[in-house]
User: What shape does this take?
Amino acid sequence: MRIRRVLLLLLFYNTTFAGALDYQLTPIKVSDDIYMFKGLKQDFTPSNGGNIVNTGFIVTSQGVVVIDTGPSYLYGKQMRAAIGKVTDKPIIKVLITHHHPDHFLGSQAFSDVPIYALSSTIKAIEMEIASLLTNMYRLAGEWMRGTEETPELFQALNLSEEKLGNHQLQYLSVSGHTNSDLMVYVKEQKVLFSGDVVFYNRALTTPHALPTEWLATLDMIQAMDVDFIVPGHGDISKREVAVIQTADYLNWLEHIISNAVRDGLDMNEALNIQIPERFHGLAVLNAEFSRSVSHLYPAYEEIFFK
Amino acid sequence: MHEQILNKEPVVFDDRINIQVPDFAEDPMNVPVSVEINGINDIAEIRVFADLNPIQKILVFKPLHIKPYIAFRFKVEQATPVRAAVKTNDGSWYVGGRWLEAAGGGCTAPGTGTLIPDWQDKLLNVTSRVKMNDAYIGRLRFKIKHPMDTGLADGIPEFYIKKYALLDESKREIAIVETFQPVSEDPVFSFDIYDAKTSSIELIGMDNNGNKLEALIRQ
Ligand SMILES: [Zn+2]
Assistant: This one.
């Protein structure tokens, strides 16, 4: 009897903890010295632990630059361990692209390294971190354990360009996905870490979107000398197709919601709008569309109501 | 629950009551609901309520001379059935409902409008979007500036619009709406006015502190 109970406990331990709580982060080589960790094209769930985001790192001769830290302390720790398998160079800085929880809540694992974000991003983190954390604990469950409110970890990024060893990095302060988005451009290899300014094969998330500014930023990227984009969510892609897909969906979204408000549709009528077939391949499409209606409708009422 | 809302009168569940809410309340402070009744005559009133909200009653709508259709947004505290109950003039109740999934927190979170300076100057201001049908108003949507505080957030007393009437251009009451605390801050309402054949709408109402709502809407 006693032995059986021990066995059951062990079994429980293996499947629930040791087995399940592994993000299985495997670096994917984007170009020489440039790597990404690819998230799942899903919503936050207790089974994916919030790993729906793409993060990355650049190995310069001076040390490693990390881009975004993932959704949880555990993710940050596992990310750091996975980077250590690629290089024994120290991590010299971390860059946070914007204030959405899946991009910065792993920062605790890098608390011994300077972590930079745009100053408006830090302000937004300070204001929203409590509710973002509550929400992530609810959505991702036990994977979040140990993840705490640590807004003091972030310092303002005041550089727009720097040379780190053999790599010239450009830090682009833009807006549209939120009011403050950071993109990281690696010049020689023509790779852009776009943060959530670009999505590919995954429907956009819009809780703080500014559609007009977002479209302008996409135009700017399209004019840049970029070969490959590591988007915040979805698949790595050549620049042009990913930007076109992001802009096409965003344009459609803005158009359809603006017209719905103009024509007097109530929000539920707008939620029932048919989504064109060309977007049906985007992951999480229906859920994101209905969230976007909820995010964007009131702003258009502000515009059309006299 | 039903006894409280429906006065212990006979209840029939009915699919002529088309109530729509999203599957999930993305923003628990602003859950869109629309109610449209097709094929029930002699409607005296339509009550909208959420069984598991701390304040269940959301709104009572009397479509005197317009289509029995209303849409607006409300605050939800947790996942709950959302129901519309229709009372006909002979005293019968018909009920339709939908399940709403929610993470919650909408009712106990304070409104944000009162944090903005000068909000009082705009209190009960009305802005609108009118869709004309020839010379008459068809779909009418309007927003009323109001914090709509539930009284459930710490230290903030209840403060909400109680009631308003829609009047046509000859000052005839064409609809009456009673609103309760769960209706969203700065509420937006949608109506179909076609049947009233009017080119303007007057709004007359008041909140629980006696502040008056008065507005004239035309294209
Ligand atoms: Zn984001």
About this structure: Chain B touches chain A at residues 20-24, 26-27, 30, 32-34, 71, 73, 103, 127-131, 138-143, 188, 190 (CB under 8 Å). The longest strand of chain B covers residues 93-102. The radius of gyration of chain B is 17 Å.
